[in-house]
Amino acid sequence: MSAPDPTAYDKLADLSRELRYLKDAQAILGWDQEVNLAKKGVAYRAQQLAFLSGEAHQRFTREEVGDWLAEADQSAETLNPQQTANLAHWQREYQRATCLPLALVKKMAETQALAHEAWSQARAASDFSQFRQPLGELIELSKEQVGHWGYSDQPYNGLLDIYERGATVQQLDQVFDELKPDLIPLVEEACGRETYAPTELRGDYPIEKQTALNQEIAESIGFDFDAGRIDTAVHPFCTGLGPMDTRLTTRYDETDFRSSLYGVLHEAGHGMYEQGLDAEQHGLPTGDAVSLGVHESQSRLWENHVGRSLSFWEKWLPRAAHYFPQLSGLSAEQMYRACNQAEKTHIRVEADEVTYDLHIILRYEMEKAIFSGDLALDDIPAAWDEKFEQSFGLQVDTPANGCLQDIHWSMGGFGYFPTYSLGNLNASHLVAAARGSGSVAAAMDSGDYSPLLAWMREHIHQPGSLLAPEQLIETAAGSPVSSAAHLAHLSQRYLGN
Amino acid sequence: MSAPDPTAYDKLADLSRELRYLKDAQAILGWDQEVNLAKKGVAYRAQQLAFLSGEAHQRFTREEVGDWLAEADQSAETLNPQQTANLAHWQREYQRATCLPLALVKKMAETQALAHEAWSQARAASDFSQFRQPLGELIELSKEQVGHWGYSDQPYNGLLDIYERGATVQQLDQVFDELKPDLIPLVEEACGRETYAPTELRGDYPIEKQTALNQEIAESIGFDFDAGRIDTAVHPFCTGLGPMDTRLTTRYDETDFRSSLYGVLHEAGHGMYEQGLDAEQHGLPTGDAVSLGVHESQSRLWENHVGRSLSFWEKWLPRAAHYFPQLSGLSAEQMYRACNQAEKTHIRVEADEVTYDLHIILRYEMEKAIFSGDLALDDIPAAWDEKFEQSFGLQVDTPANGCLQDIHWSMGGFGYFPTYSLGNLNASHLVAAARGSGSVAAAMDSGDYSPLLAWMREHIHQPGSLLAPEQLIETAAGSPVSSAAHLAHLSQRYLGN
Fold first, then answer.
1. What strands, in cross-sheet order, belong to the sheet with B238-242?
2. Does B21 contact A51 at a Cβ distance shorter than 8 Å?
3. How far apart are CA B259 and CA A156, in angstroms?
4. Which of A297, B41, B183, B267 has a CA 20 to 30 Å removed from the CA of A189?
5. Cβ contacts of residue A332 below 8 Å, gap of 6+?
6. What percentage of residues in chain B have a pLDDT greater than 90?
């Protein structure tokens, strides 16, 4: 007896896995570009990546794929829940991919490459005029793109949906309107408190000792070094190159070991999510991380809820002092306070937990205004500075510390920033739920994070993209996400109540 | 006026460049596997490489490619010499590729990736039984492959031709029959001479200082670090990932800096060949290295003719002593003698120049016997040990020092080893010719290797695969290669006459 003919669903699953081989090849080329590639190799690498993107796009947008989708849809009642979720995902992606004209796709890629270079130079020179034109083009191309996709209510919704399926202005307005009134006084109070002076920690921290401590901690919390590694890069990131191959990067400050440590904890959080996905489902949506807002919940969780907790330092300070004897005189309480200081500063990536979301709200409001047409290109720097002063009470001295600081817009990543705040809210909401389950809280408070990881594995990692992001969080936590848990966490940590 | 339709040749050239994007993606996946990949990532990497091999194979073997080849052939009189060489190359490759079943291509790639892992473990455990099964599979798959291609006289000829276009058992028997009668007495005499005892150089050589010295030397001889890098791997190798991206690896012995240094000089020789290819032609045969025998001539040239010369140590000993003060008391003459000691040992990659070709002859005879059916899989270790004792007068104590020492068979690289001896002969032949040209000899003898590199750039690197290997060497040197120059070189260096 011969094997039955593959069904339309089988063909789609095979295609999905094949496309993933190509995407994972792109991922290693991208990882290598950040970690290893010498400068003369960059131009060819860009061509090669463009070719592979085009290949993946062409394979996916073939007419027969549309036929398979229609056919699979007709026998949808034969599919199990995983298969149903995968089919819905492919339908959505196919619809989005096939309605973009090839010329627009190419123009977008080309403009992004140029804009990235222009942004680098504009930021170095702290001169918005050098970034103005490509930024304007990317905004127009993004509008064109969402015009092809279609959107409900306003174009910005179409962009938000790229990074967080189902996210809308209406929903995010609600999130931030709920968060802001309590966050602002909390920021004021936290920033006004006297804390352990961070300068006392500055000193000499040799890189190889930082590496050894980071590795010891990452391994202890559950990052599997038999299925991944940590390298050095200018901008810390995490990327999955395959179901058993997750790469983290960090950067080192030889005067403060916390820079690389918190980089590693953050990226290891992303990495453990990747390592916790169902390897059997790799290449299918159910084997993929569900959204940036959920991904960021995992990184924030390990960086902040674990890594900046008192129990973490009770456990790890002796090891840190083993590598860095200058820490021997400190108490865990002092280290805890030194790692949780609120301060209003200009740069998002250096912000503490309590001021962080103010940076995101500013960007969200800027993007809303840009895509509703209320904010013109030339007015972006002044609008940023005005908003910043309103929120932070600080003047922006120069555009490099203002609207030029982040890479995202140069990549056309409009709608990306809000996922950082969603990540913060999700992290606090999930940690609160996990702590209410079995021995998680008691274990965490004694420095044992394995029950916490097990909980995340079961409720967040293993389902992949089976559920929509909000649904996943609600199912995992038993209630929909709100800002309550996050505000309680910040208040407890920064105000001690 | 619109652009004219692309010709059949143009279509083939575009395809060739596209396939190169895929092959360069495979190259980085392979490089990464040796340098970075954690063990749980190996299985997926094997599947991914198999997929990409299959992709490249399918793209190249489409029927329309055959039509383009026929069409280009019909207007062959319109092509320039580069285009003619490219077309001939594609015709030959198409003929070979179209007669291989896709399943075999994929099976080969997958088995290679798994065999590599098995070999690593088998070598570490010095246990042939762990490598036996994948080795057997690779031998059978290779036989199947040459069966599809067809071959003249015997299957091994089909394998030899992969690495050195046109090489046959008949020709190689002739090469080795010419070399052996003079080499064997030379080995005996060289190994019998009293030399500077190498143990005097053993000491403490920190890896970071070895790295710094190697980098300084590699840069000085012409390896471009803006278009490449050096990493650490179990088995030193060089791989090109793009026209401006050449990766070298070496390994470190903390008791003897020469191990990593000569590894780097060897691989930098390969690397400078890659860096010297015409970047505009990347993706076309005329932008590719022509053969392994020519590639190896470049590595041997820098490792031995340059790196083990007296003038090299006159120039570099002071820098080496700067990094390793224990070398301060040595003279350049002593170092020269210490780096040119003939000794019969077990490991090919550590062999001196004079005994080296005996290692190759052994492997060549083993492979001939395996593919003629005279040597069974299970008899390989014993046959190796017996042949080794015959040639070297030494017993093989353990398989790691015998038939498990080399990586090549784990990659299915049967027919590869003879190119090392061809490389030795080519190197000596080319150096003799280059030294007869302009200021090359005088510059070399004063430690300036830039005229030598310029000569190789012009005569060997820039032509790519325009000519067949033997033709390239003959055109460059003004006479066909023979063993004369190599024997003269060995005799001068090891016997001083």
1. B228-232, B245-250, B238-242
2. yes
3. 60
4. A297
5. A310, A313, A314, A317
6. 90
Sheet architecture: strand order including A245-250:
A228-232, A245-250, A238-242
Are B243 and A37 inside 8 Å of each other by CB? no
Provide the residue count of chain B.
497
CATH architecture of A151-497: Orthogonal Bundle (1.10)
* CATH, range B169-495: 1.10.1370.30
Which entry of B34, B110, B267, B353 is annotated as an active-site residue? B267
Instruction: State residue A2's pLDDT score.
Output: 61
- For residue A228, give the chain B residue with the closest CA: B38
Convert B168-219 into a string of H (helix), E (strand) and C (coil): CHHHHHHHHHHHHHHHHHHHHHHHHCCCCCHHHHCCCCCHHHHHHHHHHHHH
* Contact list, A18 vs chain B (CB under 8 Å): 51
CA dihedral B422, B427, B428, B429 (to 10 degrees): 80
pLDDT in tens, B149-173: 999 899 999 999 999 988 999 999 9
The β-bridge partners of A246 are: A228, A240
Average pLDDT over residues A313-341: 95
Q: What is the count of residue pairs from A and B with beta carbons less than 8 Å apart?
A: 85
Contact B211, B456 (CB under 8 A): no
Q: pLDDT tens, A113-146?
A: 788 889 989 999 999 999 999 999 999 999 999 9
Q: How far apart (Å, rounded) are the C-alpha atoms in residues B107 and B94? A: 19
Instruction: DSSP letter for A301, please.
Output: I
CA distance B390 to B369: 16
Residues 6+ apart with CB under 8 A from A87: A9, A12, A69, A72, A73, A76, A79
Find the angle CA(B90)-CA(B473)-CA(B447) to the nearest 5 degrees. 125
CA distance B357 to B304: 14
Q: What is the DSSP code string of B262-320?
A: HHHHHHHHHHHHHHHS-GGGTTSGGGS---HHHHHHHHHIIIIIITTSHHHHHHHHHHH
Nearest Cβ partner for B40 among A32, A52, A244? A244
Q: Which residues of A touch B41 (CB under 8 A)?
A: 227-228, 241-242, 244-245
Which chain A residue lies closest to B280 (C-alpha atoms)?
Answer: A44
Query: What is the Cα–Cα distance from B25 to B21, expressed in whole angstroms?
Result: 6
Amino acid identity of residue A320, one-letter, is A
* Span A153-173, pLDDT tens digits: 999 999 999 999 999 999 999
**Cα separation of B75 and B85, whole Å?**
14
Could you tell me which residues of chain A have a Cβ less than 8 Å from any Cβ in chain B? 18, 21, 24-25, 28-29, 32, 36-41, 43-45, 47-48, 51-52, 224-229, 241-245, 282
Neighbours of A377 (CB within 10 A): 15
Q: How far is B361 from chain A (nearest CA, A)?
A: 38
Burial of B319 from C-beta contacts in 10 A (0-12 / 13-18 / 19+): middle
Residue A232 to residue A264: CA distance in whole angstroms: 10
| Chain B contacts to A (CB-CB under 8 A) | 18, 21, 24-25, 28-29, 32, 36-41, 43-45, 47-48, 51-52, 224-229, 241-245, 282
* φ/ψ (deg, to 5) at A388: -65, -45
A252-269 core/surface letters (b: 16 or more CB in 10 A; e: else): beeebbbbbbbbbbbbbb
pLDDT grade for B28, boundaries at 50, 70 and 90: very high
Please tell me which of the candidates B18, B28, B52 has its beta carbon nearest to residue A51. Answer: B18
Distance CA A441, CA A444 (A): 5
From the list B226, B228, B242, which residue is nearest A45 (CB)? B242
Tokens 């490249």, located at residue: B56
ipTM of the predicted structure? 0.91
Residues of B in contact with A225 (CB under 8 A): 38
